[in-house]
Amino acid sequence: MSNLLAGKVGIISGALNEESIAWKVALKAHAEGARFVLTNAPLAMRMGEINKLSEQCNAPIIPADATSMEDLEKLFSGAQEHLGGKLDFVLHSIGMSANIRKGKHYGELNYEWYQKTLDVSALSFHKMLAVAEKQDAFNEWGSAVALSYIAAQRAFLDYTDMSQAKAMLESIARSYGQRLGKLKKVRVNTISQSPTKTTAGTGISGFDAFYEYANRLSPLGNAPAEACADYCISLFSDLTRYVTMQNLMHDGGFSTTGISEEIVELITNAKQ
Ligand SMILES: NC(=O)c1ccc[n+]([C@@H]2O[C@H](COP(=O)([O-])OP(=O)(O)OC[C@H]3O[C@@H](n4cnc5c(N)ncnc54)[C@H](O)[C@@H]3O)[C@@H](O)[C@H]2O)c1
């Protein structure tokens, strides 16, 4: 622990269970001296696991469906009230696709679910930032981070409508980053994370094979959730004050690797 976030306060969304990336971010933010409010969809609260994290981090929970402006308004005003002032950081760690859950392939997507995917996984980031702007909820040099995936740039068929959601999410980070940078010196970024074994991750068909493929292609191997949490902490800290409007690859080198010895070996052996 180095107290990188001493005196900083914020909101952390998306901690569902111990595997969640947001769960690890919360533990690390707490260890680095931050105070924060936890939030998740009211439905996710029923599982109750978040109460454990809340106790560990001494962080209250304010339930909010990230698609509901009303919920988000209560979340941002409640967080500022509880934390005693404006916010220094916000983590958007939210994703959901009913099309993926139901195993729909790209040619048979249900369009109502498609819109829901975009609303939950991308527009919700805009809604959070818009509420923060309206309530003037950020301190200067604040930081908003959302978690993305490389399917925003490359085709991964099984990721179906989440690919478009991530492309939209990254675009929102750029546009809102420009606006909030000017208005309030607040930075907005996305982190594009390696495949990670979480509830959302493992719900994608073929995840295990793809996880192994990415692991063998990336020179550093897949980035674990703990390392992603470290990266989030660095982006909340004052060490990255001029990083904004970026999609930051956190993938062990996956995105810039063509082929690796491990993959060549695998294919050569399979052919024998
Ligand atoms: N796991 C991976 O392989 C991977 C890779 C890259 C990026 N990501 C992204 O990381 C983020 C966190 O996912 P995770 O892997 O930790 O899985 P997770 O399942 O633990 O987290 C997803 C969270 O989204 C929340 N959520 C869903 N609908 C919501 C709503 N309407 N309102 C508020 N919250 C809602 C869920 O309750 C859950 O806590 C997501 O954006 C995901 O797309 C994950």
UniProtKB/TrEMBL annotation:
Its EC number is 1.3.1.9. One of its GO terms (molecular function) is enoyl-[acyl-carrier-protein] reductase (NADH) activity. It holds the Pfam family adh_short_C2. It catalyses: a 2,3-saturated acyl-[ACP] + NAD(+) = a (2E)-enoyl-[ACP] + NADH + H(+). NAD(+) binds at G14, S20, I21, I94, K166. It comes from the Bacteria. PANTHER family: ENOYL-[ACYL-CARRIER-PROTEIN] REDUCTASE (PTHR43159), ENOYL-[ACYL-CARRIER-PROTEIN] REDUCTASE [NADH], CHLOROPLASTIC (PTHR43159:SF2). Belongs to the short-chain dehydrogenases/reductases (SDR) family. FabI subfamily. This is Enoyl-[acyl-carrier-protein] reductase [NADH].
